[in-house]
Amino acid sequence: MDLTWYGHGTWHVELGGRTFLVDPYFDPAYTDAVPADLDPDYVLLTHAHRTRRHDLDAFSEATVVANTELVNFLPTAHDLGPLHPLNLGGILDADGAYVLMVGAEHAHGLRRSSYLAPDLAYEPNEINVGPAVGYVFTDTEPTHTRPVDASTFYYTGETQLRSEMRDVVGAYLRPDVVATPIAEVPGMEGRSTMGPWQAAIAVDWLAPAVVLPMVAPSEDASRARFEAELAALGCDSASVFLAPGETFSA
């Protein structure tokens, strides 16, 4: 299992002979990588905000996976290839890997003026593009008993704490590696996503061997606080802070 972070919520996942790209946004402030560098089998979106689908048009050959309402919206704003809708609890069988869509809690409405010319006479101005989600990637079919030799990666998406992390993902899927935001946007610690203390609780619940915190390279204070919160909880998950473009293999 190879996990490459490109900044923001953008991950490239290689697992079970398949390749996945999550929330494609190659922000030059974070990475020199460009969409042409990658050729994923699947592109997965966690929600509809621009920072989740900024470079989506570059992957017209990939199958795009998202919640059902978002899949219905995407053709109005993007020129795409195959679309694969999922709903919460749904599983993508990628022939060698499985992806489970799980819940996340984050603002997810989309204003029409953000993708079309503003039209004040058109109501409502905000459309329903479905819930925010996270994804669990594994090389064995998800069930109530995880095989000992399974490889499992959980990307929380942009979210606050959710009991599903403890009661379902942690208890039954037992991820080896978790990626979670701790202060994704500089100066926005604990405002747009979980901050360090909530993220530490999530990791304590999930008990992965490794956590990959998503944090802007300049956010040294958030990194230090996250490590301190983990230690205070007695959590022995190892924190690995990736630089944008760096790969973690498990």
Q: What proportion of the residues form beta strands (DSSP E)?
A: 25-35%
Shape: globular
The biggest sheet, with number of strands, parallel, antiparallel or mixed sense and barrel status, is: 7 strands, mixed
The overall pLDDT average reads 86
What's the arrangement of strands in the largest beta sheet? 6-5-4-3-2-1-16
Q: What structural category do the secondary elements indicate?
A: alpha/beta
Cα gyration radius (Å): 17 Å
Report the uncertain regions. Answer: 114-123
CATH C-level class is: Alpha Beta
Q: Please give the number of β-strands.
A: 16
Per the CATH scheme, the topology name is: Metallo-beta-lactamase, Chain A
Organism: Salinirubellus salinus
Protein name: MBL fold metallo-hydrolase
Folded structure, characterized:
It is globular, with a radius of gyration of 17 Å. The protein is built from five helices and 16 strands. The longest helix has 14 residues, at 220-233. It has helices at residues 50-53, 68-73, 163-173, 196-206, 220-233; strands at residues 2-5, 11-15, 18-22, 42-44, 63-67, 83-86, 91-93, 98-103, 110-111, 126-127, 133-138, 152-155, 177-183, 210-215, 238-239, 247-249. It is 18% helix and 27% strand.
Please tag this protein with its features.
alpha/beta; Metallo-beta-lactamase, Chain A; 5 helices; globular; MBL fold metallo-hydrolase; RibonucZ/Hydroxyglut_hydro; UPF0173_UPF0282_UlaG_hydrolase
